[in-house]
Amino acid sequence: MSARLQNQVAWISGAASGMGEGIARLFAREGAAVVLVDVQAGKGSAVAEQIRAEGGRAVFIECDVAKEADVRSSIERTEKEFGGLQIIVNCAGIVHVKLLHELDEADWDRLMDINVKSIFFSIKHGIVLLKKNPRSYVVNIGSVGSFIGQSSTPAYTASKGAVMMLSRSIALDYAADGVRCNCVCPGITDTPMLREHLKMNADPEAALRERLRRVPIGVPLTPDDIAKAVLYFSCEDSAGVTGTTLVVDGGYLTAAEWRHPDHTKFMDPL
Description:
Strand content: 5-15%
Order of helices and strands: EHEHEHEHEHEHHHE
CATH topology: Rossmann fold
Structural class: alpha/beta
CATH superfamily: NAD(P)-binding Rossmann-like Domain
Shape: globular
Low-confidence stretches: none
CATH architecture: 3-Layer(aba) Sandwich
Largest sheet: 7 strands, parallel
Number of strands: 7
CATH class: Alpha Beta
Radius of gyration: 18 Å
Distance between the termini: 21 Å
């Protein structure tokens, strides 16, 4: 094991499932002490327990990242548990499949609070700890929706555009303190949130196949695919890289129109 994150402490939001879970598991394998932050107490506790059973260091903290007091408390507990903080990964996010005129104000506010305001809270209360280290890392999870519009998800797309731009501002404002901040923008990734989104269709699997026809590699990404990109930004493998955005989308954004042939080699097992 390479242990690229040995002696590092990582606070990861949205870590009970999907991409956040994948990031937490990979970071633990790479030697980090991981703090899993989520509202899903049952799932988050189970993931942390599994990481510990495999020899890793992990704690779960039930936390609503839309609430400043919760975020502040979770970061204070992180320091108490592990003695510091080197990495913040803002992965928590939700989506509403509604047109603007169908959204309630509460829907809009809740989405923006979780997807964007939570990043403000994590930096506000985590920056004191990050500044204590020679090098620290912030990685925010955007989306292909940070770059393009997507049908029926205007609030989500607006929030992910904000995540990308906020990442650049963080990179500028804290570079002198040894903090690098970057943004990872996933494409179609097989997560519980995607599966919930697909349930809006009469045939979810058919809807997924149709969406993947627009992706050159022809298959959905996995949480591990995204976790590897986040790991790159969370250690000195990416030294010198800050304020940038890495798109991990199977080629989705490479063409305005695309339909792959019925088969690609990415569909075959290695």
